[in-house]
Design a protein that fits this description.
Blueprint lengths: L2 H11 L8 H8 L4 H13 L5 H10 L1 H8 L16 H15 L1 H10 L7 E2 H12 L3 H17 L4 E2 L5 E3 L2 H12 L4 H15 L8 H11 L13 H19 L2 H18 L5 H16 L3 H18 L5 H16 L3 H19 L4 H16 L3 H18 L5 H16 L3 H18 L5 H16 L3 H18 L5 H16 L3 H18 L1
Antiparallel strand pairs: 1-3, 2-3
Protein name: TPR-like protein
InterPro entries: DUF7779 (IPR056681), NLR-like (IPR053137), TPR-like_helical_dom_sf (IPR011990), TPR_rpt (IPR019734)
Pfam families: DUF7779, TPR_10, TPR_12
Amino acid sequence: MDESQGLQLLYNKLQDASHGESAVDLLRALDYIPLAITQAAAYINRRARMTISGYLDEFRKNDKKKENLLNWDAGDFRRDTSASNSVVTTWQISFERIREERPSAADLLSLMSFFNPQGIPESILRKYSRNAAELDEDAADAAFDEDFETLQVYSLIAATAETDMCEMQALVQFCTQVWLSSFSNVERWRQKFVGLMAEEFPYVDFRNWAKCQQLLPHVESLYESEPPGQEVVREWIYVLSEVGWYMQSALGKYAEAEKLYWRALEVSEKQLSVQHPDTLKSVSMLASVLGNRGKCEEAEKLHRRALEGYEKELGVQHPSTLTSVNSLAVVLGYQGKYEEAEKLHRRALEGFEKALGAQHPDTLMSVSNLASVLADQGKYEEANKFHRRALEGYEKELGIQHPATLTSVSSLAVVLGYQGKYEEAEKLHRRALEGFEKALGAQHPDTLMSVSNLASVLADQGKYEEANKFHRRALEGREKVLGVQHPDTLTSVSNLALVLRYQGKYVEAEKLNRRALEEKEKEL
């Protein structure tokens, strides 16, 4: 049913049809389902002071209120419902009939009720059904097709024009869960959903970002919920942590990632233990995003906690311990504690080479991070050597368009700029920027860092107009993405002010310098 048909039905059923725009909002809330629209109109008509907006307010208040409204005029829907016209009861009759005729179809419906209504991957449902059916693949696929068709016949789900995708109206999902709760089965299916998402949500890597993005809407329901039982606590924590890492690394949404890490840590400490490896991982990931957000002191404290825990629980040579060493060193570098950072980076590199080999991506990450802290101390020749080693390894192991490779390109370009090799540096910065824009998008923090680095090397060559343009782009992006007080934003303010001075625009440059100074004083 489309909007115009829904409005016509609603106005035909209402005694007072003067309700304006709120009528459209009601139709959307009810998924344009005729039965739900008819019942809502009857409810409004029966209450003298009830309006569409009032009904919507009640409908959106909480799930219990929504259930009461949809179950209105039904009595106890587990008893004789033959005369009822409530939404819940009407669908419950269908659900029960499906469960009697084809239990596996009812199971599929139950699982689907926990997905986002739109874009449900059919391949994931099919894979789940294969495992649950305990049949050979051909027989399991045939059974799934029949289950799927059964639910379509009852108009409970629909295939979409997009390959491998199906959908289910949100109201049908809600009523399915109400039905499941009537025989205390909601948590069982919520557990199955969490387990399935933990199985399907991939380890976050550039090559898996497309699948991460596909599953992102389906795991959003887990963010504010509690784990549905001790059996799936670790799976629940894994999903939140990986989603957080995807938001942090792929989307540059640091604030959202931080929120997820805090939530995962809270549950992990409470239901596992403060020293459990999953808890330590949550501590480390939280520290990482705090460093990205410029909260370096808090990040350092958490990194030290994670490292101490890893050393005690897993040993000093375990890869997770070495990653923690590396992460602590990075945040020390952010704070200018270069000697301690270098010492830790060398420890991490030696450990990674021994545990994983010289060409493993984690080893190459350690090589690159050591190079950066060497450059911070003016040890440009040694930094150049390590950056070239890292870049060569990344290109071979991950490919030239992988974000880790592009970061390595950018880091080498920075050192070349320090060495006065501006033409080669500019060429590499342009390569990095083009790659970041393609892989991450124009507003990702790593892209904005690349923009800033290119602007700086342009200024070093006296190309002030172009440098000005890129510094303004970096500043505008960082203000929007990171906030006006983030250290990277203030760096952009200072960099732009410097170029403006070179251009003789002293008034604007002075204004920016004062802004940078005031923001830094606030931080102190």
